[in-house]
Design a protein that fits this description.
Elements: H1 21-30, E1 57-61, E2 64-67, E3 72-75, H2 78-81, H3 91-102, H4 114-127, E4 135-139, H5 142-159, E5 167-171, H6 180-184, H7 189-192, E6 204-205, H8 220-234, E7 239-244, H9 261-271, E8 275-280, E9 303-306, H10 308-311, E10 318-322, H11 324-331, H12 347-362, H13 365-369, H14 377-386, E11 394-400, E12 403-408, H15 424-434, E13 437-438, E14 440-443, E15 452-456, H16 464-482
Parallel strand pairs: 3-13, 5-6, 5-7, 7-8, 8-9
Antiparallel strand pairs: 1-2, 2-3, 4-10, 9-10, 11-12, 12-15, 14-15
Amino acid sequence: MGECNIGAEKTCPHAAIILTGPALRRIIRSVKDSTVVHPPLTSAILRRSYRKTFPSAVRGEGVYLWDADGKRYLDFSGSAAVNLIGHGVAEIPAAMVDQARQLEFVHSSQFTTPVAEAYAQELLAFAGDNFRGGGVFFTCGGSEATETALKLVRQYQVEVGQTARYQVLSRTQSYHGATLGALAVSGNKRRREIYLPMVREFAHVGLPYCYRCAYGCKDCARQYAAEVERAIELARGEAAAFIFEPVSGATLGAAVPPEGYLEQVAEICQHHGVLMIADEVMTGMGRTGRNFAVEHWGVTPDILIAAKGLASGYAPLGAVIATKKVVDAIASGSGALLHGFTYNAHPIAMAAGRAVLAHVKRDKLVQAADSRGDGTTGADLGRALGRLRDLKSVGDVRGIGMLWGVEFVADKASKRTFSPELNFAGRVGQAAAKRGLMLYPMQGCVDGVSGDHLLIAPPAVITAKQIAWAVGQLSAAIEDASG
Ligand SMILES: Cc1ncc(COP(=O)(O)O)c(C=O)c1O
C-alpha cells in the first residue's frame, strides 16, 4: 500500500487509511484546546483521544472485563449500551465458528444464505405484527443502518410517485450515526459541528427533555408534536420521513418522552404521508424492557433501525427492518433496491445475531430488563440509581429498562451546569474506572456544549448485588470528582 497524506486533498484509494507521522501530528495539533499531547505516539491506532490512556482489554465474562494487567472492571454501560447478554457467552462464538467453517462469506448480489434468511424471519417476528411480511436489510452497524434507512425512505417516496419528497426531518439533541448522511440528520453538536459544511441539512425540531422542558412540562407532549407538524408543513411537500430515537440515547442520556408525544407524532406523520423511522440502535432488542422501545407507546413506525443489542457486540451488526408497505413499493415498483454494501448480511455476523436473539429469548432478558415489572433487574437498577439523587451534584436520574442517564449540575436549585471545560462527566468516568467501574460519560445535554451526564446501560444479566456495588462505587466516584 502506498501512503495517504491527509490534508493534501487527495482521497485515499486504500481500504485502510494510513496516516504518516507528520499528517497525524497535524491532526493532533489542530485539536484547538489541546495543550498536552500524551501518551507519546507509541500506538499505531488512530485513537479516539490523545489525551487519555486506554487500558488494553483482554477478557470478558458476564458483567466483567479484564485488562492486560489483570484489573477487573464492572461494565456498567454495556460498553456503549451494546452488550445486553453479558460478555463471554460461549454459545455465541461457537455459532460463529460453525458458520465460518461452513461458509465464511458470499456477496449479496450473487447469493442469499440460509442463516440470513432464517435470521431475517426471526427478526421480523421479534419486531411484531406491524412488520409481518416486511423485510430486513443487514448492515455492519448503526451508522450504515441509518444511511440505508435514509436512502430507503427516499426510494420509497420515488416508487410511490412522490418524487418531490426527499427531506428527512429530525430532532435537535439526537444522534443517528457518524457517517455524513447520518450526521446530517443528527443534532449532536459536538459530533457534527466541524463537518457541517460537508452535509446537507434539513429541519430539526425540539424533543421532550422533562428535566429542562422548553414548555415547562405544560401540555408539552402536544407542543413538541406540534413542532413536528410545523416542520412538515414548512417543508412544503418535500418531507420524506421523520427520524427519532424513541428514548433519547447518548446525546441526552436516556430522556423518556411524556405519554402521548410519540402517539401524536405518529398520527401527524401518517396524516402527511411522511414515513417514521424509529432509530432503535440503542433502545432496540430488549434494552428498554420491550423488544423495541416504540412498543411502550404502541407506536408502529414504517422503519426500525437496530444495531448494538442485535449481536450484543459479538459481531459488528446492524439492521433496517421495513414494513410490508415499504418493501412492496420497491418490489412491485422498480424491483431493485438502489443500495448495498459488500458486507451486508455477512454470514458470520448473521450467525452471531441469531445466536444472541435465541439467547435473549431463552433467558427472558427482555422481561428482566423491564424496569416497570416486579422484582426485575431493570426495576432493581432504576431503584438503586434513584438513590444518587441525594448527591449534591446529581440533578436528574432518568431512564427506562436497562438504559439510564444521570445528569450532573453545579447547583441543584437553579440547575446550573458545570463549566464544560471542567469535563465533570469525564472526571466521574475516570474516577469510576480507577475503582473498576466502566461508565459512558457525555457532555452537551443542555445545548450541545454544556451539561454533563452519564449513560448507564449494563448487561441485563447483572445481579442485584453487582448493581448495589456499582452504584456504591459510582456514588464514591461522583464525590471524588466533586472534590
Ligand atoms: C441511536 C443511535 N443511532 C445510530 C448510532 C450509530 O451506530 P454505530 O456507532 O454502530 O455506527 C448510534 C451509536 O451510538 C446510536 O446511539
